[in-house]
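Q: Here's a chain of 295 amino acids. Please give me its 3D structure as tokens.
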Amino acid sequence: MVCFVLLTSIHVAYGQGQLKKDIVEAIHSIKADVGVAIQQLESGDTLSINGLQQFPMQSVYKFHLALAVLHAVDRGKLSLNNEIFISKSDFILNTWSPIAEKYPQGDVKLTIKQLLSYTVSQSDNNGCDILFRTVGGPQKVHDYIKSLGLTEVAIANTEAEMHQNPELQFKNWTTPRAMVQLLSLFYQGKILAPPTHKLLVEIMEQTITGNKRIKGLLPQGTIVAHRTGMSGQNDDGVRAALNDVGIISLPNGKHVAIALFISNTKESIPASEALMARISKLTFDCYSNNAGDKK
């Protein structure tokens, strides 16, 4: 079922009504639970489809973790230059980890800044859990995100825990609406100090995963600061999560936050990513034509 949450209106020839119609039509092309939230950041105009539904985040929550780490940096509790020793015993077996690929025996020191880059830009699962330990665990990150005023989000488990029990991924969830609310707060500079804010934007712009999702159909060179997430399939071939969230820089100098979640589906990865790319392009075209401008 597709439901809508329209928080504010968009007054343009091609506006909220047509954009919503086109996105719904695109969603009907696959069998899945699909969540979409979009916010034109300069005006605040927001549209969501299944925006209040809980979706498992998977590696999208590495953005939330990065915010908590950099908040600790801003408060002087951590330094970007702090070095953390990593041993082979810190590595999760059979998981995505460029760190483990580069340093298979461990025995290496990486700075907080390096770990953030590995974790956010390259979606390194080992880097993620090392940073979780550094800030005190998932509950500390959960409490920090809640302190920002967000209620429709939960962070409960590490990558290692989800690796051992895939059902735990459903404990790490957000609504699409909450996701764009967080992206909006971040974009407005209301979370981090300017230097750490700038660093995280740059790291997200360097994300190497999910290039066929939000970025898939956008014009070459479009700047997207984003964070992806994806689960495996269960024994029935059902994928719990294929996600991409981020901020698109438009050619008119404005910006759109977009959160795309696909869950509970047997669709192929290419089919799911094609839907994400289609929704992102519809959004890009709409707002590049100044949708959301106040009249």
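Q: Can you summarize the key feature?
A: The longest helix spans residues 269-288.
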